[in-house]
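Q: Is it fine to ask for two folds in a single conversation?
A: Yes, each is treated on its own. Send the first.
Q: Here.
A: Result:
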Amino acid sequence: IDELKGKVDLTVALIHEGTPARQSSMGNTDVRRALDKDIQTASQVKGLDILITGHAHVGTPEPIKVGNTLILSTDSGGIDVGKLVLDYQEKPHQFTVKNFELKTIFADEWKPDPQTKQVIDGWNKKLDKVVQQTVAQSPV
């Protein structure tokens, strides 16, 4: 971040960190976890303005402020899209949140972008060839 001083207006980090949390005595895991790790990261990284997080699979209805850093998170699997609108002043370096919203995305309300769909379909075709390969057989 020190290398970016004077070269950028805001520093924004997109992270996806953490380990699955144990959810039962049976040892099952789930990726859902609290935002504690993200809060810790925001408090330790000086000069970071905005931290957009993943892995917690928890949406933040409002940005969380930790020191001078805003933490934002949408839910998981493309369920929500977040929109952040800021008011920014260069001198002194400061910004305020004008608006933040999480918008839930319903599959039946959106049409796929044809170019994006073509790329995804191409990768799925390649992936299907790999996934369908037999790698071992067992008599059991």
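Q: Second one now.
A: Result:
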Amino acid sequence: CAMVLMGEGRAFGPDGLERPVPELLAEAGISPIELREKEGLALINGTDGMLGMLCLAIFDLEHLLDEADVIAAMSVEGLMGTDQVFRAQLHEPLRPHPGQATSARNMFAALVGSEIVASHRHGDDKVQDAYSLRCAPQVAGAVRDTIAYARSVAERELAAAIDNPVVLEDGEVTSNGNFHGAPVGYVLDFLAIAATDLASISERRVDRMLDRHRNSGLTPFLAADAGVDSGLMIAQYTAAGLVSDCKRLAVPASVDSIPSSAMQEDHVSMGWHAGRKLRRVVDNLRNVLAIEYIGAARCVELRAPHKPAPITGAAIARLRTKVAGHGPDRFLAPELEAAAEILRAPKA
């Protein structure tokens, strides 16, 4: 951004093509800015870049968490799980983490009115559901609380003076260390860890719904013609690969540091690297949730004639505007991309 303001380098124009910045500014009737004393350093020093990446990640993750709660509820419904573990009295009064209470409330609400859940409420020989179903609000809720903490850090940083040197109210110009990105770098790493775990539990639900020994009577891999079709087998491979990528990217960047500038800058936050890693994790998470979305919808539809809950039914109807339902094997990539696009946060 700083180079564009100065009329330097290359950038993408309105046509989406990369061109020299002087040409783009001239066409737009914009004159390059002329920097004065200290302004050049102010444009590139401090936490602005990593803070921008943090804010964008928070925006996307807050949206994805709401989607993830409904998708998890769909998986519970399709796998003949119980909604009773999501009751409010099992959460905030006993374990007062606000994110957990929110996710449990969302999941319970998403299953209200489900004929599928009601069909096995009595006489079910299962003692309890697997962790990936039963503990869904505990994991998603912990991610919510992590995002809330990251938001508090971002809001403080947005209101902060991180310039160096800084001009105080009395006119004193003095050096300081407020440009150091540790507060932002830490939460960028923290979010990558949390988002990776959410992707991990989502993938475990996908694996469960494809296993005929664990999917409560559905076909292997949810195939239309078992033994002939592969169903969603390769989609689960994709989810597993994305989660493995996330696990590698979840290794913290902020614990690393490399000195520069003749050892004057001998400890740095690595926040920029943390931000770039987090962006990839967020995109991977969206794609994993898209795979669970497709699988859970297929599970629920295969429980006909029992009808889904109104909320999960509406989520399936939204998916069906872009992704076809159960049927013979077909090329999955366009459908996975379409589902991921549905889950993308709307532009602010």
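Q: Anything structural to flag on that second result?
A: Two points. The longest helix spans residues 48-78. The chain has a mean pLDDT of 95.
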